[in-house]
Amino acid sequence: MTAVDVPAVCGDRERVIGWLQEYGVYVGVAALLVFNIAFTPHFLSVENFRTQAVQVTPVLILSLGMALVIATGGIDLSVGSVMALAAAMISLYLGYGPVAAILVALVAGAAAGAVNGALVAFAGVQAIVATLAMMIGGRGLSLVLLPQLDGIRNAGIRELGAGDLLGVPYLVWVSAALIAVVAFVVRRTVFGRRLVAIGGNRRASELSGLPVRRTLLAVYMLCGLFAAVAGVLATARLQASDPNSIGQLIELSAITAVVVGGTPLQGGRMRVAGTVAGAVLMQLLVSTLIKHDLPPSWTQIAQTAVIIAAVYVARERGRR
Amino acid sequence: MTAAAAQDGAGAVGPILRTRGLTKRFPGVLALDGVDFDLSPGEVHALVGENGAGKSTLIKVLTGVHAPDSGEVRYRGAPVRFETPLRAQQAGISTIYQEVNLIPLLSVARNLFLGREPRRLGLIDFGRMHRDAARILHDYGVEVDVTRPLDRLSMGARQMVALARAVVADARVVIMDEPTSSLEPREVETLFSVIGGLRERGITVVYVSHRLDELYRICDRVTVLRDGRVVHTGAMAGLERLRLISLMLGREMAQVERQGATTFGGAHEQRAAEPVLVAEGLDAHRRLHGVSLAIHPGEVLGLGGLLGSGRTETARAIAGALPLRSGRVAVAGVPLRRRSAAAAIRAGISMLPEDRKGEGIVPELSVRENIALAAMPRLARFGLVSERRIDRVVEVFVERLRIKCAGTRQKVAELSGGNQQKVLLARWLALNPKVLLLDEPTRGIDVGAKAEVQRLVDELAAEGLGVMLISSDLEELIEGADRVVVLKDGAVVGELSGGEVSEGALMQAIARAGRAGAGGDAGADREVEP
Amino acid sequence: MERTGTAAPREAASEPGGPGGRRPFRGIGSGGAPAGGSATDFVQRHGALVVLVAVLAGAALAFDGFLGVGNLNHIAVGAAFPAIIALGMTFVIITGGIDLSVGTVFGLAGVLAAWASQYGSLAALALPLSVCALIGMLNGVLIARARLAPFIVTLATMLGAWGLMLAVSDEGTETYVIPDGLALTPLVQDRFLGIGYPVFAVLALFAAGGILLRRTGWGQQVYAVGGNEDAAALMGVPVARTKIAAYTLSGLLAGLAGALNAVWLGSGVTIFGIGIELDAISAVVIGGTLLVGGYGFVSGSLVGVLLLESIQHIINAISGLTSAYQQVVSGAFLIAVVLAQNYLSRRKRPG
Predict the structure, then answer these.
(1) Quick one: pLDDT at residue B315?
(2) Strands B204-208 and B119-120
(3) H or E element in which residue B225 lies
(4) pLDDT at B243
(5) DSSP code of B474?
(6) CA distance linking residue A37 with residue A54, whole number of Å
(7) Which of C45, C211, C212, C234 is most worth mutating to test chain B (most B CB atoms within 10 A of its CB)?
(8) Which of A49, A151, B57, B396 is spaced 20 to 30 Å from B167 by Cα?
(9) Closest by CA position to A152, among listed A115, A229, A97
(10) What is the rounded average pLDDT for all residues in chain A?
């Protein structure tokens, strides 16, 4: 690195990167908005914004839970599979009514999160490994429970997916509520302070008497719960349970949203607004590519580039 | 000078390494300010100075970690500028760090030969490698099965392997950074004889240490750094101890004599006869064997003993951070039922851990959050944080401990070591503890902060807190403690109180307890033969 | 498929794919690994082998003809392609990293090989191998030079490789078929003594891998990087180059496995390939390699793959359970092994 030789330039570079970390995500969102307003027909319409807001919902909700986990220095690769698990549960328990089915789905998500959390917090398994196993095993389990796509004809679930309140879709209400909850938890509660401290220095947190394991367990459970919420909402919007393809590779988008939003992968920091903007950014990116008729292969390659760029920028300060 | 030294490239008398006007600036700090530094072949050269004096920066510039802003380094007569530590090493300048830089899971022999393994038919010849490794390490007093992984060795033996590796790699200059800080006394002896051997072979040793006794024993010359400048270079012999201290501290000699080396006041009055903390029969697998002690309110209890005697373990056991096989801890007569850090904290025990970076600060969080970390439940209601209460507590402690920061929302990682330590003290004091366990509270912090911390310990004791002090700085321990419990091999072997508390008495108490090596600690420690 | 047979040939046939496969590496290993002796070390080094033998023995008792040449060949050939991936993964994990991209790289290689097979056998190997090696190298450069976390980089290139595969296969709609009479086909599909050629290829690759890891300077560097990266750098190990080479090797081997698999199947199926990386990681970990890096051996990974494959066959033999069950078992198995490893290493180093 040339950083040592040329302090002035290094200072500038650092400032640029620090600034990018802090505000880059908003710049990205703004740039994509400007681009779309200029070049995408019918972009500036209520209908389009509604669509975008609805489409971003699953990734947004996942990334909120993911941000909590990442702030503790962990990772959860299983969120997509937990979505599938929730979808399978909806289909299986719809006979008991939509509310019961949703509750079962949420409990299943929290339980999957609890398994992850227990492995990470109590058994000392690396988060990547524990959640990778859950990613594969959870998907397998959902497929065992519900081998193929199952259409949902329940009115309540359909209403949740397609209806609105005061002109705003239920899905958007739910994600707004969850954003508020997470922001409150992180800023105002002891739990929120603890999870960031644990990510910053776990041993110091232990010696300071923080209930590290309990906190970690709760964080992974929350992440699983959020994933289940995302699964329920995605199922409601799709009006079908599809454990095979729901949430496939979505963990990547969620992780990217978090990292783009300025929460470093090594933990110790948590940005809620940035995470939301990160999810919006990923959504806009994908929809822009699709609207300009680029094939899915391009979308994925572009996403790959964004992820790597985001992690690269995020790493710079983390190292200091 | 020996014959080997005379053959050296730089010629018979010329220095092997010489710097002129070396300057290195970091944001806000002039770390090195025109440093002239010479090393002769085959000498043992002490490099001393307080923290922040520029020792480590100088070493890092010499070994290619940092590039100097200006000035020149000449090595064996030619100007050099090493881009990486590896380049410096290849040229013959090796550094042995405190934390030994070897690969723990790799075998001893592989560590020794990594990168220059003997080959046969292009493949590594393990038979020869193991034979050679055993032979080489024999000269360093390390008699081990060289096929065993390195992490089965004691720290001292590992350091010897690192040293042997440097010499095998044809090092001309070996820089040793606090080499004895983790060694047993007999290991120190081995190290010294090995250093003697290096000197015979014309290898230059730069010896960085705070232990003055050692410097006088083995060093030929000394360079004293202060505030990035060389304030003295000369022969070690004939340099008065007090003068050396005053050179390092930058205080007048008379002042040192008058004030002593620490800022502790006299003995404290014990207010109550009832101890605030009683620990009985603490027993941890292979580390503690039935340690019992008591701390009274208003008393500073010192824990004496050598490294590995169980001082840190005792503190950690009391604070619930070390699993115990048996033993009881009671605070103010109430026994602790659950053994966890959280339970100990609730009972009123606070422990300042030894490893400030690893176990103390949360670097990414602010000064404020760091102070409030442990006390968070008390500064909250129904799980909700009260910013006002936090601010109140933080303000009090920032002021009382004179924590220097650009506002309480500054990241703690940006503070100096001394101020970080004060932040940690504030974290523990914010809990309103009854007992404060301090594990090396002044290690690695600057002189000013050290004095302030020592004064604070005095004040706290005077206020009626029970304090336990662990320090490898003997003066600090002797002057700071009212009573010293002496540990050895995880057991209490003596107690000094009142007028008995002196360096001599402490040494004797340690020595009285039998020969070194008695007692059942880790077998790995026996790898090094005296 | 031969379903019956006498006992003696069965035992003999178990050698090449089973315990016999370990031979080239045994006896070299008193070096870097914790030397044998204590029970925990033994379990760490040979636990997987013991379990494999027990599983095979149990299966032989429970199912007629399980140890027949045909069935064993079936298992061995089935294990061959994952084994090649696991070999590369072993090197990556010993450096302290992880490679999640191998699954889709495997799929990409299959499509590329099938597409290129119209230009001959050489192209059918050269194209996927070079593309996959490049992807591996990209992983390595991003991880070693840009110092990004291995899991996120390889997760991203997992997506990238998938995108590339879609781009090559006309968004997944086109399935390329290996033309009849490709010179490579018999080399992959034929058998010698009833055992498929891929099995021998795998044995040769593992022998080479073992020598590379244990007896060359580069192998020592791989261990050193995984054991303590900073120290390794100070000891003159070219850390970045070592890591890049490990990831390149992993990409290359995943590509080889994909290409061979395509030739074996006769077409480049655009399967998703997700889950293969988990199998590979599981196999490596089951084989005694530590996930934190710095310790491990390739022979263990081979045993691990065989163990997983045998279990899958047993699951299939019990009933026509779907592959979804296999995923559940796979995930559970990985966790069980990691838990056992944690337990063992905790016992080995108390405190």
Answers:
(1) 92
(2) unpaired
(3) strand B221-226
(4) 78
(5) H
(6) 19
(7) C234
(8) B57
(9) A97
(10) 86
What secondary structure letter does DSSP report for C267?
B
Please name the member of A5, A190, A207 whose beta carbon is closest to the beta carbon of B376.
A190
Provide the shortest C-alpha distance from residue A266 to chain B (in Å). Answer: 11
Residue A113 three-state SS: helix
* Phi and psi torsions of B94, nearest 5°: -115, 150
CA B484 – CA B476 distance, rounded (Å):
12
* pLDDT of B151 above 60: yes
- Which pLDDT score, from 0 to 100, does residue B170 have? 84
Percent of chain B residues topping a pLDDT of 70 = 85
Largest distance between two CA atoms of chain B: 78
Do β-strands B334-335 and B326-331 pair in parallel, antiparallel, or remain unpaired?
antiparallel
Contacts of residue B147, Cβ cutoff 8 Å, sequence gap at least 6: B107, B108, B109, B130, C30, C31, C35
Is 80 exceeded by the pLDDT of residue B252?
no
For range B485-499, the mean pLDDT: 84
CB A286 within 8 A of CB A277: no
Q: Which residue of chain C is at minimal alpha-carbon distance from A299?
A: C163
Q: Test B110 with C237 for CB contact under 8 angstroms.
A: no
Q: Which residue does chain C place closest to B64, by CA atoms?
A: C234
Place of tokens 């053959």: B7
Closest Cα to residue A288, out of A1, A33, A117, A25? A33
- Nearest-CA neighbor of A267 among B362, C56, B420? B362
Q: For residue B446, give both structure tokens.
A: 């600057």
Q: Cβ of B124 and C216 within 8 Å?
A: yes
Cα→Cα distances B267→B295, B303, B490, B495, B499, Å: 15, 16, 27, 16, 10
**Cβ–Cβ of C350/B105 closer than 8 Å?**
no
CB B48 within 8 A of CB B77: no
Identify the bridge partners of residue B45 per DSSP, sorted by sequence position.
B206, B221
| Chain C interface, best mutation among B94, B105, B116, B121, by max C CB count within 10 A | B105
Interface of A with B (CB under 8 A): 4-5, 7, 11, 188-194, 196-197, 200-201, 203-211, 268-269
The identity of residue B116, as a single letter, is: R
What does DSSP say about strands B29-39 and B483-488: parallel, antiparallel, or unpaired? unpaired
Report, as an integer, the average pLDDT of A142-171: 83
The alpha-carbon radius of gyration of chain C (Å, integer) is 20
Write down the number of H helices and E strands in chain C.
14, 2
Rounded-to-integer distance, Cα B108 and Cα B103, Å: 9
Q: Phi and psi (nearest 5°) for C314?
A: -65, -40
What residues of C are in contact with residue B115 (Cβ under 8 Å)? 217, 220-221, 235-237
Could you give the CA distance from residue B68 to residue B79 in angstroms, rounded to a whole number? 13
Among residues B275, B298, B277, the alpha carbon closest in space to that of B481 is found at: B298
CB spacing of B165 vs C233 below 8 angstroms = no
Give the position of tokens 């001393």. B48
Residue-range domain boundaries for chain A: 45-248
Distance CA B480, CA B483 (A): 9
Tell me which long-range contacts B308-311 makes (C-beta under 8 A, separation of at least 24): B308/B184, B308/B521, B308/B525, B309/B487, B309/B488, B309/B489, B309/B490, B310/B487, B310/B488, B310/B489, B310/B490, B310/B491, B311/B439, B311/B470, B311/B487
Spatial separation of the C-alpha atoms in residues A178 and A183, rounded to whole Å? 8
Residues of A (173-232) whose Cβ lies below 8 Å from C: none
Task: Find residues 66-95 of chain A whose CB sits inside 8 Å of chain C.
Answer: 75, 77
Q: Which of A105, A92, A124 is nearest to A216 (CA)?
A: A124
Confidence of residue B262 (pLDDT cuts 50, 70, 90): low
Contact C239, C231 (CB under 8 A): no
